[in-house]
Specification:
Blueprint: H1 2-10, H2 16-28, H3 48-59, H4 77-83, E1 92-96, E2 99-100, E3 104-106, E4 116-117, H5 119-132, E5 138-142, H6 148-153, E6 159-160, E7 175-176, E8 181-183, E9 185-190, E10 206-210, H7 214-224, E11 233-238, H8 241-249, E12 255-259, H9 260-269, E13 273-276, E14 283-285, E15 288-289, H10 294-309, H11 315-322, H12 324-327
Parallel strand pairs: 1-5, 1-6, 10-11, 10-12
Antiparallel strand pairs: 2-3, 3-4, 6-15, 7-15, 8-14, 9-12, 9-13
Length: 345
């Protein structure tokens, strides 16, 4: 039971009327355009040694954030396929969120195009600049939470940068970079609510989570283990996390469980709700890619090393710009530890 729980745990603008307007904007500006162009994640630069190492790590998964490949700046088949795209199609194709405030969201005040902004979006631009020499050489694809892994496996995107937790279940389906952010699951509820956090006050309450999220798998496992009251209703799931906030505003659910980093941004969007209690898991966000895209994984890991060292225009600067207002000035609480990598043999 304990092992299963470990796997699972690692695994708005205020007002309903305003939220409806924002959701309408999201629908208008959706980026789910059909994929065209060759070479999306079709590189096969895996060696037998590294593949065997990865498979062994999956079987013995205890710390999924450490199950990644060492950094390298070399171009392999996957990266070369991206570079070989011609003309306007020569872009990095990335799955992102477009309604997570300060992470990946469309700011309706940024002009007619309502460009994507946020911490995740900054990282995407940095990756594109390194691989293609142009930070704007990106085709963004807005994808819901439960479509992150299918989008990678089907070749619709080269990678997903979308507050995606690295966990043991997921590393069986996709490859992850080293962690780029530390967070944990937390409870979000109205300020007037008797809910106090992840405890018995959730008994007889309806809780909303995003389908395919770590939050749902954590609650499901906890309820089976008897750590969450059996009367807690966790059946309400939605395609995107922001939809949970709307359900909460409408009174259709009593609480939301999501990553604390996202919950803090949602509380900033709606002053009538707040975080309740402390984070009850420890987990890490990573860039997700296709299982056989070893060269791309290594390249992203090298980019992350350089990004974290760049105090002027890297990780720290992006945190200060987007997240310090909601998560606090001390970025060290959210910065992951020094990365550890799999041995190649």
């Amino acid at each position: 039971m304990r092992a299963r729980r470990l796997r699972a745990s690692l695994k708005g603008w205020g007002g309903v009327a305003t939220m409806a307007v924002v959701c309408a904007l999201v629908a208008v500006f959706a980026l789910c355009v059909p994929l065209s162009g060759p070479g999306v994640g079709d590189g096969r630069s895996v060696t037998h040694a590294s593949q065997a190492t990865v498979e062994k790590a999956e079987e013995d998964c205890e710390a999924p954030e450490k199950q990644t490949l060492s950094p390298s700046s070399a171009d392999g088949d996957t990266i070369q396929a991206i570079k070989d795209r011609e003309g306007e199609k020569r872009k990095l194709i990335v799955g992102v969120d477009q309604n997570s405030y300060r992470w990946g969201y469309r700011n309706p005040n940024s002009g007619k195009t309502a460009e994507l902004e946020g911490f995740d979006i900054d990282l995407v631009h940095r990756i594109a600049e390194d691989i293609l020499g142009d930070p704007d050489a990106v085709q963004f694809k807005a994808i819901p939470t439960d479509q992150r892994i299918p989008a990678i496996q089907d070749g619709r995107v080269d990678m997903v940068v979308r507050t995606m937790t690295i966990n043991c279940d997921r590393i069986a389906d996709v490859a992850f970079s080293a962690p780029y952010f530390k967070t944990g699951q937390q409870v979000l509820a109205p300020k007037s609510s008797p809910v106090k956090g992840y405890d018995d006050t959730l008994a007889d309450r309806k809780v909303c989570t995003a389908a395919g999220s770590t939050a749902y798998s954590t609650l499901e496992a906890a309820q089976k283990d008897g750590e969450l009251p059996a009367s807690t209703d966790i059946s309400t799931t939605v395609p995107n996390q922001l939809d949970c906030l709307v359900r909460l505003q409408l009174g259709e659910v009593d609480a939301v469980v999501t990553d604390g980093a996202l919950a803090a941004s949602q509380a900033a969007q709606d002053p009538t709700v707040q975080l309740k209690g402390d984070a009850f898991t420890a987990e890490y966000y990573g860039v997700a890619m296709k299982k056989d895209a070893d060269d791309l994984v290594r390249r992203v890991n090298q980019i992350l090393v350089d990004y974290r060292k760049d105090t002027a225009n890297g990780w720290q600067a992006s945190y200060e710009k987007w997240l310090s207002a909601t998560l606090g000035k001390d970025a060290k609480k959210s910065e992951p530890p020094a990365p550890q990598y799999l041995r190649s043999t």
